[in-house]
Design a protein that fits this description.
This protein is α/β, with parallel strands linked by helices. It has eight helices and 27 strands. Strands 8-5-7-6-10-9 form a six-stranded mixed β-sheet, with no helix packed on it. It has a six-stranded mixed β-sheet with strand order 17-14-18-22-21-19, with helices on both faces. Strands 23-25-24-26-27 form a five-stranded mixed barrel. The protein starts with 13 loop residues before the first helix and ends with a helix.
Length: 412
């Protein structure tokens, strides 16, 4: 154990544990270039600048007629002959004085025109238009560079690319983007009682839900998954699984086997194979959690209870993965809302209650919690939309302000 690491029998507060975990992780730097249509969900490795203005020229924001304000009648209706027709993608001729140009949305404004009048405001007879309004100079014109100027940074390094980011890159002519390679995450589950869904259950057995929860969360974060399956409750099998995963993956995540029972071998295996940086946290659910490294590959062992897996993944694995991905990770921002429940019994650990937002009679948001907060009740995480965080030793009465965090902040 490093002399700077805390004693292993101490319960580590949430903020301290998170700080330690992030401090031990460095972003991976494997960069590849991908075509735009393959870059969705990837993490951008270099900031991108535009080499063009968008739009490149003044253009019409709607179908109508381009003209010059000097040709507007000082009183009464204006009548102008139509001298040309300009569609999107065409370059018109300079506007002849005393005329209007038929123009369509996106088409460049011809030289000499300084406004566009909507076609709905015009009466058309033969080759002449007539209208009785006086639009202002610049009406219905999108100016060159109104969206993006040449040299502007359009995408920042470390962002995870969304559909609108891909579209923005395309709008300035980029055909590919440099992105970090997907991080490889090896997972295995410990527990002789676990059975794959679809197989019959014997007495004392349960279906393995954690494998599917973990895979779904890792997919949501854009990881490549190395699934090592179920591992028996022996020290040797645990060590073999750890070494196998560490050789293939950038990060190893396990579930189960991190407590202090005779069949819990993860902590001992980490200490024998590598370094254990932290173990046991002052949070609920999720007290048993092990974090360390095996041959320089970071390892995090989550509890076995289904809700504890979900909660600790959100709180610790998500920021760890985002840091490895090179993303600009920040702790999720809480929304302060009224508690729609009483919490009369304080706990020495920080609690993360499964909750969702509803509205009161005044349509104000209120945090409601699932009635059964047991760490084995996975249906609470399905019903909920986020967490309510309750500090150590805190009690609440309905109406008190609480911090609410949406699940999407962790998993996006």
């Amino acid at each position: 154990m490093n002399q700077c690491d805390p004693p292993k029998d101490r319960l580590i507060p949430y903020d301290e544990a998170l700080e330690q975990l992030i401090a031990k992780i460095s972003p991976l730097q494997r960069v590849v270039r991908k075509p735009l249509l393959e870059a969705f969900g990837e993490v951008l490795a270099e900031s991108q600048r535009s080499t063009i203005d968008v739009p490149q020229a003044d253009n019409s924001s709607m179908d109508g007629y381009a003209l010059n304000t000097s040709d507007l009648a000082s009183s009464g209706a204006t009548e102008l002959p139509v001298s040309q027709r300009i569609a999107a993608g065409e370059a018109g001729e300079p506007l002849q004085p005393g005329t209007a140009a038929r123009i369509f949305t996106g088409a460049p404004i011809p030289a000499g025109a300084d406004l566009v009048i909507m076609q709905e405001q015009v009466q058309f007879k033969g080759d002449t238009i007539r209208f009785d309004i006086n639009p202002e100079r610049g009406s219905n014109i999108r100016r060159a560079g109104n969206d993006i100027r040449s040299g502007d940074t359009i995408l920042q390094k470390g962002c995870r690319l969304r559909p609108q980011d891909i579209g923005l890159a395309a709008s300035v002519g980029l055909e590919s983007l440099p992105v970090f390679e997907k991080i490889r995450v090896g997972i295995f589950l410990a527990g002789d009682e676990l059975v794959e869904p679809g197989k019959p259950l014997a007495v004392g057995q349960i279906y393995d839900s954690n494998r599917y929860t973990l895979q779904g969360m890792l997919q949501a974060l854009g990881c490549e998954i190395i699934d090592l399956g179920l591992v028996g409750d022996t020290l040797e099998e645990t060590k073999t699984a750890m070494l196998n995963a560490a050789q293939q993956a950038d990060l190893v995540v396990s579930s189960g086997g991190v407590s202090v029972g005779e069949e819990d071998h993860v902590r001992i295996a980490i200490e024998q194979l590598g370094d254990l940086h932290l173990w046991r946290l002052r949070i609920k659910p999720g007290k048993p959690l092990a974090f360390g490294a095996i041959n320089s590959t970071p390892f995090i062992g989550l509890p076995g209870n289904p809700v504890s897996v979900f909660v600790t993944f959100c709180l610790f694995v998500c920021p760890l993965i985002k840091t490895l991905q090179g993303r600009t990770w920040q702790k999720p921002v809480a929304v302060q809302v009224a508690a729609g429940f009483d919490w009369p019994k304080p706990d020495s650990r920080r609690e993360f209650l499964r909750a969702r937002l509803e509205t009161d009679d005044d349509q104000a948001p209120v945090a409601k919690i699932y009635p059964n907060q047991d760490s084995g009740v996975l249906s609470s995480a399905v019903w909920a939309q986020g967490f309510v965080e309750i500090a150590e030793g805190q009690t609440l009465r309905a109406g008190d302000k609480v911090d609410y965090f949406c699940f999407e902040q962790f998993l996006s």
